[in-house]
Design brief:
Hydantoinase/oxoprolinase family protein, globular, Hydant_A_N, Oxoprolinase-like, eight-stranded mixed β-sheet, about 30% helix, ACX-like_C
């Protein structure tokens, strides 16, 4: 029997595996007919397939079988990974070569005007004296310009000089290039030269030779205008391809060796997932946080919540995303991967260095200011209490020292913690330099890290023009339920799931299979002078037909029926005289009449007005399409949430004892009741102070808060006054209708 209580009924016909590889733990959600089993195992950075097999073995054991019997019966494996992020942080990619149009060799080194701020925190940008551009992934001596030129209409102005290509290619290889990125000017308008360069590379360095060179063409990874962004996306793909390929091959080989014969899907930062053979390296970046965001979207829909803040507190990071008006169609305006702007569409998600492994220290240069993060102890050596060699206190050490986490119950009792070492590390490193007690120092560590998280939530919500009270907060990850009372103070209700520690893996289990295709097309859609809509419908329809055809071919090759897919169109549009592009959802797949064209324009004006203001609608300037995006979505089974009658409020049947814990609001240690989350039933209320233990996390209920179990078996953490107010309860119930 599963050791975790399910908060949702899985589809009875599904047998799927969903894996989320984080910086500290690897999470599993195994859907097996009418059961949903969860498991966690420490991430193994030296070989991710080891942690993958460990967590899979744990899941199989809960079913009473082994992976050799389990995997042949599994229909689908979905995988979210941070390999791309980790490899970029470590800068462990191969030496690259870049072939570009002659005269444009320095484009990516010059970059955009604000390139030095890309990927940096606000506090870092303020210190101008130490700011500098990131060290390039491809050095200037490894960039070669080839003789060719295509104009913005796709016309060849200068034919490709093939001998020049061969000569410069050999120079790059002799210089140590082990992967080649090719990015020519306006190649998306006419890719013939890029394709021919790849043929030349294959003629010179054949794929069956030991020295095989991976080749990435910019028009294939980003078919849009923007030389710098398109080139950097190609460079990042070339840089990450070999390392991700190696990691994924090891995992893929392990699956095949143990009898798995189904598809292996990777989560994309676009909000969908696709076959490993149809996924570029850059699209896997930030896959785990996006899986959590998409899970919040789908489960929020099932609960009736239109506005959701998704917060994931892991071992190394704090991930944040927003569902607004039952939609996640909010893309990064300037999509950044590490320190570089890219051209691919990415859902908005914020990641910061704040988690259970965040290291606390005293900055003596700033008047003994306590700082927590962004440095992390990771999974090895981990927090001091892990007793694996860590010496610097972390957030988890503070939780253990305060009595919130039971040393003998961590990680379902399979990972005993050394509280004495955690206390001693906090004493010598934090408490004594600050002249406070250990309890006060540990509480300060929590306060600092939770304030950092709360500031991130406030910044995201307020800067997008919303109010926290209009949202509910989904708290997940191993540390989410432990810290949500501190970082979610402005949001009235926090929702805590039984599967909170593996929520990102749960999110991927309800994600749709989705491919995204993009093309730049400059189309005058509304004439500013005459106010007439375009009559050139083919300019709109032709690229959509091409992308739909490509999508159908890709889905067929992955084993999906393209007739089951839902095709939708999004448009990057703007008004003449303005620079702000708005991505809008087109109501039509193709335009066949002027009425259709009017429907498309009306959709743009409506979304543009809502995003900015009706006062900035500039019809006299005309309206333009910049890019066309086609999404091919194969819907997957979603969660069905059970509904139970609410019972007695007294949680005594779920009580498993008590232990001393320090509560800053009370200024002292209190003998605090401890409850088992899997024994709490709908209607139960835990009034703070209290601790509620689940398999892989602990819910901290401080004084003045109430945790109540709703009709779906989910925990709702609220202020005591809010929980008692009938009006607020009615609002929440109405939101679920």
């Amino acid at each position: 029997m599963s050791r975790t209580r399910s908060g949702a009924e899985p589809d009875r016909r599904r047998r799927t595996i969903d894996i989320d590889v984080g910086g500290t733990f690897t999470d599993l959600v195994l859907t097996w007919d009418d059961r949903r089993i969860t498991a966690k195992a420490p991430t193994t950075p030296y070989d991710l397939s080891v942690g993958f097999l460990d967590v899979l073995t744990d899941g199989a054991e809960q079913l009473g079988t082994d992976i050799d019997e389990l995997l042949p019966q599994v229909e689908l494996v979905r995988y979210s990974t941070t390999v791309a992020m980790n490899r970029l942080i470590e800068r462990k990619g191969p030496r690259l070569g870049l072939l570009t149009t002659e005269g444009h060799e320095d484009a990516i080194l010059i970059g955009r005007g604000a390139q030095w701020t890309d990927g940096t925190r606000i506090s870092e940008r303020r210190n101008l004296a130490v700011q500098q551009k990131p060290a390039p992934l491809v050095t200037r001596d490894m960039i070669a310009g080839v003789r060719e030129r295509v104009d913005s209409f796709g016309q060849v102005l200068r034919p490709l000089d093939e001998e020049d290509v061969r000569r410069k290619l050999r120079r790059l290889v002799d210089g140590g290039a082990r992967a080649i990125a090719v990015s020519l000017l306006w190649s998306f308008a006419n890719p013939a030269h890029e394709k021919r360069i790849r043929e030349i590379i294959r003629e010179e360095y054949r794929s069956y030779h030991v020295g095989y060179l991976p080749v990435v063409l910019s028009h294939e990874v980003v078919g849009k205008v923007g030389e710098y962004e398109r080139t950097m996306t190609a460079v990042l793909d070339a840089y990450l391809q070999s390392s991700i390929k190696a990691e994924m091959e090891q995992t893929w080989d392990q699956l095949r060796e143990h009898g798995y014969r189904g598809s292996f899907l990777l989560t994309h930062n676009t909000g969908g997932s696709a076959e490993i053979f149809k996924t570029t390296a850059s699209r896997t970046y930030n896959g785990g946080p996006i899986a959590g965001l998409m899970g919040s979207y789908h489960i929020g829909q099932a609960l009736g919540f239109r506005n959701v803040i998704a917060s994931d507190v892991g071992g190394t990071s704090f991930d944040l995303g927003m569902v607004v008006d039952a939609s996640v169609r909010s893309y990064e305006f300037r999509p950044i991967i590490d320190r570089w702007m890219v051209g691919i569409s990415m859902l908005q998600a914020t990641t910061m260095g704040a988690g259970g492994g965040s290291i606390a220290s005293v900055n003596t240069l700033l008047g003994n200011r306590l700082e927590v993060g962004p440095r992390s102890a990771g999974s090895y050596p981990g927090p001091v209490c892990y007793d694996l060699g860590g010496t610097e206190p972390t957030t988890t050490d503070a939780d253990v020292a305060l009595g919130y986490i039971a040393p003998d119950g961590y990680f379902d009792g399979r990972m005993p913690l050394d509280r004495d070492k955690a206390v001693e590390a906090i004493r010598t490193t934090i408490a004594e330099p600050l002249g406070v007690s250990v309890d006060e120092a540990a509480a300060l560590i929590r306060q600092v890290i939770e304030s950092t998280m709360a500031s991130a939530i406030q910044r995201e919500v307020h800067l997008r023009g919303y109010h926290p009270e209009d949202f509910v907060l989904f708290a997940f990850g191993g540390g989410g339920p432990t810290h949500v009372a501190g970082y979610g103070a402005d949001v009235p209700t926090a929702v805590i799931f039984p599967q909170a520690p593996v929520f990102s893996a749960l999110g991927s289990s309800v994600m749709d299979v989705m491919h995204v295709y993009e093309q730049s097309r400059r189309i005058l859609f509304l004439n500013g002078m005459t106010q007439e809509l375009t009559t050139d419908h083919e300019a709109y329809n032709a690229p959509i037909r091409d992308m739909v055809a490509q999508a159908r071919a890709d889905l067929t090759s992955e084993g999906f029926d393209p007739d089951d897919a839902v095709f939708t169109v999004e448009l990057d549009m703007l008004y003449g005289g303005q620079v702000q592009v708005k991505r809008v959802s087109s109501p039509l797949l193709e335009i066949r009449s002027q009425e259709d064209a009017a429907a498309v324009y009306d959709a743009f004006e409506k979304e543009y007005s809502e995003a900015f203001s009706p006062h900035v609608v500039n019809k006299p300037g005309g309206a333009y399409i910049e890019s066309i995006i086609v999404k091919a979505t194969v819907p997957q089974e979603k969660l069905e949430l059970p509904v139970h009658e609410l019972g007695d409020a007294d949680p005594s049947p779920a009580r498993r004892g008590s232990r001393e814990a320090y509560w800053p609001d009370l200024g002292r240690r209190v003998d605090t009741p401890v409850y088992a989350f899997d024994r709490l039933t709908p209607g139960h209320r835990v009034e703070g102070p209290g601790l509620v233990e689940a398999e892989f996390t602990t819910i901290v209920v401080p004084p003045g808060r109430v945790l109540r179990i709703d009709e779906h078996g989910l925990g709702l953490l609220e202020h005591a006054v809010t929980a008692e107010a009938p009006a607020r309860a009615a609002v929440l119930e109405g939101a679920r209708a």
